[in-house]
């Protein structure tokens, strides 16, 4: 028997047993001797290969090859060797792999292991029949379309005993025990949660029960004081508004704050940035433009505690009704692109900043606004404020301060805004254009009209030109002016018919002025005070 590896075994078809071992060298020519032919064969095993686990067939077969059966470098001089064609045939050599078989886990074991991983991020909502994915970055659950879920989970497969692979998703969607919730809600009030709810409100990040460091938050409180001109009642209400949101985020304030300054760089945006840090970026949103409030797809300010509108312009007057509804409504129809509309609770509070004096239209009896004009811009160095903006210790102290404050401006469980001069100005501007035109032009409108008799059509045209220049609503009905004059201006104007249509005869400028002063003292005060200021005393 030739010298070979003890783990291999050669089996011959004849009783012939080779007795000669030949060292391995280069392949020689095989000589053939005619005297006493003797078969000499050396089996050369291939170099050992790394053992690879085999699952389907644990036995590998070596292919027949002449190179395996003949020494390529032996010296055959003087040794009779039979022709190659006469070499007996051998059966295939079989080598068993010593590596044990790998046991495949059961389908249930595989499924439960993958399910545990997948359900850290994905879940099913029974209420709307949609999938949601919890972002590992911010922990917010967002809608995930079914096709996106299929794509994300297609890498997870299970192997059956029959060697067939099964998609994990196919089993998961049929699993009655998969992670699922009855409905998805944004509910800051834990007492309002029901069994089976998934609450997307994760709470504020700050801790309760800590004492504030007043030295850390003093610069921010000073900035608020500057913004409301140091008026104690205005400072108190601003802090009440913030405290309300921190203490009861599930109750809307029902009051919007409007900060106006004709100059930039006074700190309006700094205040908003501090509030954003206080409530968390995930609970705040910035309007890209004022019209976004009335936009059809309104998911921008759903599930938010604060919505911020920057640099609101005069076009916002056209959105007065939409803004009023957004400030006070507790429910909203939430619409997103390619998603069915659904009802959602609305916890958003609004704050706006502007450099335009005429923005929102505020009616005389409207209690939805706290509007203030900053009269002392640039008094505070904001560099220290910006340095502390990203200091968690500062924001924690601000949270503790607001959380522990006693809110004073409350009546019947509602937050009541204080009146400011700027709000009164906006309320005055909300008067109809034909009223404002009379206040501004009573002393010049009758010029060129004999006996102060003006055609109503001329007054109508003059009012609409005035309204266009002031971004006010124009008069649409030509019967509006005559009706107004008959019902409200009987003391200072008389209507009559003529060959040019209806005409109005106005009384003297002094009589009109006194009437307007009684009609609206605030507007009259703003319009006429400069005219009544006494001049310098005559020199003696």
Number of helices: 16
The secondary structure category is: alpha/beta
At the first level of CATH, the class of the largest domain is: Alpha Beta
**What separation lies between the terminal Cα atoms?**
148 Å
**Which percent band covers the strand fraction?**
15-25%
Give the CATH architecture of the largest domain: 3-Layer(aba) Sandwich
Q: Report the mean per-residue pLDDT as an integer.
A: 79
The oligomeric state of the chains shown is single chain
Radius of gyration: 45 Å
Please summarize the sheet with the most strands: 5 strands, parallel
Q: Into which percent range does the helicity of residues fall?
A: 25-40%
Low-pLDDT stretches are: 1-28, 32-45, 52-77, 92-97, 530-540
Spatial strand arrangement across the major sheet: 12-13-16-11-17
* CATH homology-level superfamily of the largest domain: P-loop containing nucleotide triphosphate hydrolases
How many beta-strand segments? 22
CATH topology of the largest domain: Rossmann fold
Q: Number of domains in the coordinates?
A: 4
């Amino acid at each position: 028997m030739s010298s070979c590896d003890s783990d291999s075994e050669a089996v011959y078809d004849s009783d012939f047993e080779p007795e000669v071992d030949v060292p391995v060298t280069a392949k020689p020519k095989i000589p053939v001797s005619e005297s006493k032919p003797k078969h000499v064969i050396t089996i050369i095993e291939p170099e050992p290969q790394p053992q690879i686990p085999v699952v389907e067939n644990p036995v590998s077969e070596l292919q027949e090859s002449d190179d395996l059966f003949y020494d390529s470098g032996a010296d055959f001089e003087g040794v009779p060797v039979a022709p190659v064609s006469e070499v007996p045939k051998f059966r295939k050599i079989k080598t068993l792999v010593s590596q044990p078989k790998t046991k495949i886990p059961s389908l249930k074991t595989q499924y439960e292991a993958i399910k545990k991983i997948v359900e850290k991020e994905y879940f099913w909502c029974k209420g709307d029949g949609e999938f949601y994915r919890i972002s590992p970055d911010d922990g917010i659950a967002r809608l995930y379309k079914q096709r996106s879920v299929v794509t994300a989970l297609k890498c997870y497969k299970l192997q059956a005993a029959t060697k067939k692979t099964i998609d994990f998703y196919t089993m998961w969607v049929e699993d009655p025990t998969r992670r699922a919730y009855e409905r998805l809600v944004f509910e800051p009030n834990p007492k309002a949660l029901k069994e089976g709810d998934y609450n997307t409100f994760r709470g504020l990040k700050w801790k309760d029960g800590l004492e504030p460091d007043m030295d850390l938050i003093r610069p921010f409180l000073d900035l608020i004081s500057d913004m409301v001109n140091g008026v104690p009642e205005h400072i108190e209400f601003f802090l009440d508004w913030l405290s309300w949101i921190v203490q009861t985020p599930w109750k809307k304030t029902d009051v919007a704050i409007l900060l106006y300054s004709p100059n930039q760089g006074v700190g309006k945006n700094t205040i908003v940035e501090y509030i954003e840090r206080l409530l968390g970026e995930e609970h705040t949103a910035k309007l890209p433009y004022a019209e976004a409030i009335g936009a059809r797809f309104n998911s921008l300010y759903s599930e938010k505690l604060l919505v911020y509108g920057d640099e609101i312009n005069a076009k916002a007057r056209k959105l007065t009704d939409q803004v009023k509804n957004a400030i006070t409504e507790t429910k909203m129809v939430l619409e997103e692109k390619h998603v069915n509309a659904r009802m959602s609770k609305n916890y958003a509070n609004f704050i706006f900043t502007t450099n335009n004096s005429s923005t929102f239209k505020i009616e005389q009896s409207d209690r939805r606004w706290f509007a203030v004009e900053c009269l002392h811009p640039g008094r505070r160095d904001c560099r220290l404020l910006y340095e502390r903006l990203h200091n968690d210790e500062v924001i924690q102290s601000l949270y503790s301060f607001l959380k522990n404050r006693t809110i004073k401006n409350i009546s019947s469980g509602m937050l009541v805004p204080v009146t400011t001069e700027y709000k009164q100005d906006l309320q005055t501007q909300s008067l109809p254009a034909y009223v404002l035109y009379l206040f501004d032009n009573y002393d010049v409108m009758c010029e060129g009209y004999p006996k102060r008799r003006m055609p109503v059509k001329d007054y109508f045209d003059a009012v609409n030109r005035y309204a266009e220049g002031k971004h006010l609503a124009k008069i649409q009905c030509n019967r509006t002016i005559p009706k107004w004059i008959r019902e409200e201006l009987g003391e200072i104007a008389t209507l009559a018919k003529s060959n040019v249509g209806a005409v109005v005869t106005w009384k003297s400028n002094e009589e009109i002025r006194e009437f307007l002063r009684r009609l609206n003292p605030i507007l009259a005060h703003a319009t006429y005070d400069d005219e009544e200021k006494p001049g310098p005393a005559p020199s003696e």
